[in-house]
């Protein structure tokens, strides 16, 4: 409607006139009025020119044939402006709402920050109060400790003074007793000296008589001995048969003494090698005369027994079993062909079957075995060298060949360069190296150790083969559990042992479950688990072994194994890596 009111039509002349009129009015205005008053008066003036222009435009529009369209167009424009205005109002309201939401978010964030700050301040205040209370408590403890130390010091000083007084009293008493004793002794000596002076003549006469009697006795003895010896020499010199008889008797006596000493030494060594056994040997399958007399049935069974499989009752990794079977076959053929035996080192965690295989190897090869422990060498001291020589001398006398198994060999075969060992132990190591410098056809040396890295280099040089015994895997554990379940549970139950019954359940599936539970356990620990099953039966009320009892014992054994591993210190883990299967947890 701006064109209707004449706002868009240019009227320069009128504007100029109006401007000129305005200027004239300003000039004709009352000069006494201020500028603000003049502007207020101008605000209430009415300009009729605009109304006149609007009237002219209305008349022109009424005469125009497009008046209705123009009016509709004006209405549409006005509606459009109103809609735009409404849209702007809604946008403004949306902005206002958004501003309110943002303000609420800001207020919430401020409140959260305020709460966080208050919480932080409270925490700091609580920490400060806690520090103050701790400091006060520490000060109290320090004060109490000082008081206690002061009291203790005073008590110690009091005790020390009392002890000093007691010591002075005792010393004074001792001194007085000593003075009294000296005075008494002096008095006694004076009395004795006085008596001796008074009895001097009598004492001298007694001494003179005793000396004269002793001299007479000695002279008579000398005369008698001289007469007898002279008569004997005179008889011998005049009779040569007696001289020869005496010389022969003395010669035979000396020969008899020497022969008896030699025969005694030879007999003792023979008895020690044939009848007894050396001190260092703890267990042996070699029967001596005394053993045969004590256990004749066992001796006869052994003579009639046949060689057994070296791996019978031994459950190991398949690759390790194959290697040990080759060792057993080679050892047996070596004994048959009288060849030189090879020295073997068996190393690995304890309880993995090293000693058991050594015994089985000796039985399979038809040899005797002897077991000695390295820990028995050090306590012997200087006698260790002699003991080692006796062991090897005794080993040489075996007719079947001897498998000498040294368990815990690292106890005395340690490195001489880095380990601090005693001179006696060093001498024992040197003696062992001397006796094993060359391979032998009489005995086979088998060393066992959990820490083979501690061996002296010279010991490693004497080893022909090294075999590592590892902890059993899942399949080996299941085989071991089945073996010991049959040995300690099924066989006693089948034999009808007293108070030993077995509940019916899937034994194979139970052994498979326990194999998973017993991860990391050695063969010895699994065998002890079999003994614990028997103990569970004997401890039960009805003497029946159930599946739950079997699994409970397995879980208990696994927990105990983990506890033992946890007890190992870092130094033990590094020093005994084989205990954990080479893993440092």
Automatic annotation (TrEMBL):
Signal peptide: none annotated. It is found in: Mitochondrion inner membrane; Mitochondrion matrix, Mitochondrion nucleoid. The keyword Membrane applies. Keywords: ATP-binding, Coiled coil, Membrane, Mitochondrion, Mitochondrion inner membrane, Mitochondrion nucleoid, Nucleotide-binding. Residues 147-164 have a biased composition (Basic and acidic residues). InterPro entries: AAA+_ATPase, ATAD3_N, ATPase_AAA_core, P-loop_NTPase. Residues 82-109 form a coiled coil. Pfam families: AAA (PF00004), ATAD3_N (PF12037). This is AAA+ ATPase domain-containing protein. It comes from Glossina pallidipes (Tsetse fly).
């Amino acid at each position: 409607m701006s064109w209707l009111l004449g706002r868009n039509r240019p009227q320069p002349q009128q504007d100029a006139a109006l401007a000129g009129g305005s200027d004239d009015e300003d000039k004709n205005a009352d000069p006494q009025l201020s500028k603000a008053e003049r502007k207020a008066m101008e605000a209430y003036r009415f300009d009729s020119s605009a109304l006149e222009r609007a009237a002219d435009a209305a008349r022109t529009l009424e005469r125009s044939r497009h008046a209705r369209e123009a009016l509709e167009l004006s209405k549409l424009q006005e509606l459009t402006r109103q809609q735009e205005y409404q849209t702007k109002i809604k946008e403004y309201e949306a902005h206002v709402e958004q501003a309110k939401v943002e303000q609420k978010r800001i207020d919430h964030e401020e409140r959260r920050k305020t709460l966080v700050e208050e919480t932080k301040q409270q925490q700091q205040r609580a920490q400060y109060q806690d520090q103050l209370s701790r400091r006060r408590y520490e000060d109290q403890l320090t004060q109490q400790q000082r008081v206690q130390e002061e009291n203790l010091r005073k008590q110690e000083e009091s005790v020390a003074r009392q002890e000093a007084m007691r010591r002075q009293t005792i010393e004074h008493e001792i001194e007085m007793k000593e003075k009294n004793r000296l005075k008494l002794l002096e008095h006694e000596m004076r009395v004795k000296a006085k008596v001796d002076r008074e009895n001097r003549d009598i004492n001298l006469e007694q001494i003179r008589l005793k000396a004269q009697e002793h001299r007479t006795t000695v002279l008579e003895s000398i005369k008698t001995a001289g007469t007898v010896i002279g008569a004997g020499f005179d008889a011998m010199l005049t009779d040569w048969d007696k001289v020869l008889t005496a010389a022969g008797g003395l010669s035979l006596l000396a020969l008899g003494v020497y022969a008896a000493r030699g025969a005694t030494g030879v007999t003792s060594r023979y008895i020690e090698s044939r009848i007894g056994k050396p001190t260092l040997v703890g267990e042996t399958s070699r029967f001596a005369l005394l053993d045969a007399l004590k256990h004749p049935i066992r001796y006869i069974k052994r003579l009639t027994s046949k060689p057994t499989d070296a791996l019978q009752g031994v459950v190991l990794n398949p690759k390790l079993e194959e290697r040990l079977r080759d060792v057993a076959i080679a050892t047996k053929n070596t004994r048959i062909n009288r060849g030189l035996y090879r020295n073997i080192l068996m190393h690995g965690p304890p309880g993995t079957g090293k000693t058991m295989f050594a015994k089985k190897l000796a039985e399979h090869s038809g040899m005797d075995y002897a077991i000695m422990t390295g820990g028995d060498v050090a306590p012997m001291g200087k006698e260790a060298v002699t003991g080692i020589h006796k062991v090897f001398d005794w080993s040489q006398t075996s007719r079947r060949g001897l498998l000498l198994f040294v368990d815990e060999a690292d106890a005395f075969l340690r490195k001489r360069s880095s380990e601090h060992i005693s001179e006696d132990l060093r001498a024992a190591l040197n003696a062992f190296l001397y006796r094993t410098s060359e391979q032998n056809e009489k005995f086979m040396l088998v060393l066992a150790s959990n820490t083979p890295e501690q061996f002296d280099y010279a010991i490693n040089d004497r080893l022909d083969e090294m075999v590592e015994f590892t902890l059993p895997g899942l399949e080996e554990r299941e085989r071991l559990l089945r073996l010991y379940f049959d040995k300690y549970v099924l066989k006693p139950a089948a034999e009808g042992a007293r108070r030993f019954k077995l509940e019916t359940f899937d034994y194979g599936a139970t052994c498979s479950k326990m194999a998973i539970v017993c991860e990391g356990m050695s063969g010895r620990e699994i065998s002890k688990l079999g003994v614990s099953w028997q103990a569970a039966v004997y401890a039960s009320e009805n003497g029946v072994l159930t599946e739950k009892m079997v699994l409970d014992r397995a879980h208990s054994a696994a927990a105990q194994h983990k506890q033992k591993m946890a007890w190992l210190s870092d130094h033990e883990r590094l020093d005994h890596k084989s205990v954990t299967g080479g893993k440092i947890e």
